[in-house]
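Priority: medium. Attachment 1 of 2:
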């Protein structure tokens, strides 16, 4: 090789090396950071579900169903935790809050309810209310109505759930299904007209007969998305059903504010 060619080759190596070093320094060829910030969903419960049905409580069962979600941090919280499970640091970074309550609605502090409402309406945090949480303080504050059902009866055997709005993201991958459900809520439901009714259902009664009602309802409340899922009586392992688990995952991703 001539002296001239040696010089050209050497310059090429120097320039190529400089480009490579520059690319490494700027991260032009770097992979996405493994520690990228995850979205956060908090699953809250008052802790009154029977241990024989829910050994880890309902929030534990729902949290386990959310484990397959990618890039999500799943946190369980309870009314018995400090600051009733929702200190400002946690509430303020929650993208979605799931709420299950039954017997301890009145124990939830009004100051906490006001913070939850603000996070939904002004900040766009998603809110998912489960079964008897229709009477929970945050649920009623967000709806602005009595949130009462026409009747509450423990005289049913099964609930046939029908996909009413198959195009809705919460219905993704869900076909009609049946679960054991020993308590029925009867229409009418005293809430504003929902933006969408994703699921309807029919309870089969022990004495014979059927009782239809809405099962999955969606609203937009201020900047936040709100989903209420009526099924979930605590003496039935509803939140361990694979269909309900998929609905929970779908609902979390739907309710989360757009990044």
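Attachment 2 of 2:
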């Amino acid at each position: 090789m001539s002296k001239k060619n040696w010089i050209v080759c050497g310059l090429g190596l120097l320039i190529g090396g400089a480009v490579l070093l520059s690319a490494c320094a700027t991260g032009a060829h770097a992979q996405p950071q493994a520690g990228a910030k995850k979205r956060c969903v908090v699953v809250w419960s008052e802790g009154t579900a029977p241990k024989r049905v829910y050994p880890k409580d309902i929030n534990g069962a729902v949290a386990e169903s959310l484990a397959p979600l990618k890039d999500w941090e799943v946190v369980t919280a309870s009314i018995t935790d400090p600051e009733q499970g929702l200190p400002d640091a946690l509430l303020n970074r929650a993208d979605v809050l799931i709420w299950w309550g039954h017997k301890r609605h009145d124990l939830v502090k009004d100051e906490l309810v006001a913070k939850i409402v603000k996070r939904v309406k002004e900040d766009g945090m998603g809110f998912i209310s489960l079964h008897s949480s229709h009477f929970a303080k945050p649920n009623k504050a967000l709806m602005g109505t009595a949130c009462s059902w026409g009747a509450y009866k423990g005289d049913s055997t099964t609930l046939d759930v029908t996909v009413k709005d198959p195009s809705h993201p919460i219905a993704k991958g869900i076909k009609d299904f049946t679960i054991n459900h020993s308590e029925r809520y009867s229409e009418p439901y005293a809430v504003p007209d929902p933006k969408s009714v994703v699921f309807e259902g029919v309870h089969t009664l022990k004495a014979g007969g059927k009782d239809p009602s809405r099962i999955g309802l969606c609203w937009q409340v201020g900047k936040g998305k709100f989903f209420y899922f009526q099924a979930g009586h605590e003496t039935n392992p509803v939140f361990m059903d694979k269909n309900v688990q998929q609905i929970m995952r779908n609902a979390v991703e739907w309710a989360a504010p757009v990044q």
